[in-house]
Amino acid sequence: MLDLLARNWWLLVIRGIAAIIFGILAFVWPGITLVALVIMFGAYIFVDGIFALIAAITGNKSGQQWWMLLLEGVLGILTGIITFIFPAMTGFVLLYLIAGWAVATGVLEIIAAVRLRKELSNEWLLAISGVVSILFGLMIVFWPAEGAIAIAWILGMYALIFGALMLMLAFRLRKWNADPNAPAPHIPTTV
After folding, report:
1. I need a surface site. Which of 47, 107, 160, 180 has the fewest CB within 10 A?
2. Which residues are within 8 A (CB) of 18 and not within 5 positions of it... i.e. 6 or more apart?
């Protein structure tokens, strides 16, 4: 897999640049409607899927896990297509899915804080994070436009960080690919 990524380092550069552009646009136009945000996200995920698919197809398939890149590419392309066909529904579902997740997570965090109060010091931090999660979810439900802006910023931050990491990885792989005698770069597989 490392050899496949090293040979196609330039695809990681394109993916990183696309993510950074998406992230910048999400911050530059924070008042963007949810449908426009969903379409931008659909375009990003579609392009990302194409480049992941290209990396899988052009790579050496002998004994490497190229199928994971293939699966990632196909899923990205399909998600992008569904987003283009149903942008309003995708945005609506996405917005309320995030709201539901935030409220449910908040309730579970508060329950955990109450149950852990005798075993854990500073359990109130967990309870406060639960309250913040619930408030975020309710904000999305009652003020969907503001929720869309918050989500745009969160997606923008994610895209900027993801893009920067892709670029760093791409240039490490490029350097390794240029010098076949160099030891393979250490790429952590777990967080």
Report:
1. 180
2. 44, 47, 48, 51, 163
Among the listed residues 15, 59, 20, 50, the one whose alpha carbon sits nearest the alpha carbon of residue 177: 59
Q: Output the CA–CA distances (angstroms, integers) from residue 51 to 70, 159, 169, 189, in the order listed.
A: 10, 16, 16, 21
Cα dihedral value 44, 151, 100, 96, nearest 10: -70
Contacts with 132 (C-beta within 8 Å, 6 or more apart), sequence order: 106
> Helix, strand or coil for residue 162?
helix
The phi, psi pair for 102, rounded to 5°, reads -65, -45
Residue 115 neighbours by CB under 8 Å, 6+ apart: none
Confidence of residue 185 (pLDDT cuts 50, 70, 90): low
| pLDDT exceeds 50 at position 159 | yes
Q: How long a stretch of residues is the chain?
A: 191
List the domain boundaries for the chain. 2-178
CB 75 within 8 A of CB 131: no
Q: pLDDT digit string (tens) for 88-98?
A: 777 777 778 77
pTM greater than 0.85 (yes/no): no
